Amino acid sequence: MTQVLFHDDARLQHCPATVTAADASGVQLDRTVFYPLGGGQAGDRGHLLLPDGRALRIADTRKAREGGGILHVPEPGQDDLLALLQGGLQVTAQIDWPRRHRHMRFHTSTHLLCALVPQPVDGCSITADYARLDFHMNEPLDKDELSAGLARLVALARPVVSRWITEAELDANPGLVRSMRPPGRPKGESLRPPAEGSPVSVQPPRGLGRVRVIDIAGIDLQPCGGTHVDNTAEIGAVRVTKVEKKSAMTRRVVLGFGDT
After folding, report:
1. Tens of pLDDT along 27-67?
2. According to the model, what pLDDT value does residue 202 have?
């Protein structure tokens, strides 16, 4: 099990850590600031700094298949350094902060977009270059109206807070879950039984007794394990770059930053 530090402080850029396992698939640590691919958000990149000053370049971060660990996936061609990362070695885990911060800005932007489009979400992708949400709906969406709405919500400068609720509280408020799986899509996490022909909600991981939620004051509240900015004003200029009709019941909205 890897202790994740980004849930409590997404602004941590580095941390001391101990290697617990390492092989060709990646390096596992006892604790990390690296966010693994999940919830539509890309995994972090960065470096593992060795005691002798050398750095193992990390190209991606993924969840381990078993044990609750996190895999720091190295760039190819570093076998000599990887061979040094034996269990017990002390390293410093350091993320690519500019790239992570773009993920944070985009991820919070998608929560604002959910507030503007109150429809189930059946697809999501958050990268350093763009973000997109697929909404389960057939009504048209106006790109300029959505861009104006995002600008208004960003300018409100509302605090963005992560907190935990109990699984019982989530069960009492099923509307908090916005992510859906359309009929026919392969199953993911545990699912609430759907009405015939309707999408089904993709529930957050269960069994820990609590669920992490992101609360944007007066704007949006939903379960989320991703990384976010501290205030909507920190997002900066963001706009809708494209609205697409992907199917009869899917409207895709793509976001970009105003400086790109």
Report:
1. 999 999 999 999 899 999 999 999 999 999 999 999 998 88
2. 55
pLDDT of 110 above 70: yes
Range of the structural domain that residue 112 is part of: 99-257
Residues 107 and 214 in one domain: yes
HEC profile for the chain? CCEECCCCCCCCCEEEEEEEEEECCEEEECEECCCCCECCECCCCEEEECCCCCEEEEEEEEECCCCCCEEEEECCCCHHHHCCCCCCCEEEEEECHHHHHHHHHHHHHHHHHHHHCCCCEEEEEECCCCEEEEEECCCCCCHHHHHHHHHHHHHCCCEEEEEEEEHHHHHHCHHHCCEEECCCCCCCCCECCCCCCCCEEECCCCCCCEEEEEEECCCEEEECCCCCCCEHHHHCCEEEEEEEEEECCEEEEEEEECCC
